[in-house]
Amino acid sequence: MFFFISDLPQILAICARHLKSIGRLKNNIVVSTVMSNMGLGEALKEMGIENVITGVGDRYVMEEMHKQGAVIGGEESDHTVFWYHQTTGDGMLTALKLLEAMAFESKPLSKLKKVIKVFPQVLINGDVISKSSLDSLFKVMAANKNAEKELDSNGRILVRYSGTQAQCGVMVEGCSQKK
Predict the structure, then answer these.
(1) Could you tell me the pTM of the whole model?
(2) Separation of alpha carbons 157 and 148, rounded Å
(3) What are the tens digits of pLDDT across the range 43-80?
(4) How far apart are CA 59 and CA 33, in angstroms?
(5) Which CATH superfamily is domain 121-174 in?
């Protein structure tokens, strides 16, 4: 079992809030992928920022940023894109943008990241021989529906094939690790 925790939700939330506070969050939009933590959407909503969701892959994030006129977006492989500066994910630029937000607010990162509650996620990948339509996998879809009922509106399950490997992944996310 693999527990999936990325810093991307905190990075996007902190940087989006900063860009909004200095009037540089064009169109008031942040682009992220279906794999992004539910906490990101909740935090952005509380800040009055729209969260546009794409498929997995930085190219989809970039395409949607261009389409929406967004200036910040990212995906769970920790690719954060700042359109004003660069059209690809860049770790050094991301670090500088976080430092800029810290300096502007005169707060350490440990305080800034509290803008978001990150939901626990579990990601399990399994090898597949072929990538049949997920809708045709009736037992998998039935198990998925039952598990989603158990989570109620406090979580979600995402079943998807990898775009780069012969694997199918199941991500479960909820309000608590126990749930």
Answers:
(1) 0.84
(2) 6
(3) 999 999 999 999 888 889 999 999 999 999 998 777 88
(4) 11
(5) Alpha-D-phosphohexomutase, C-terminal domain (3.30.310.50)
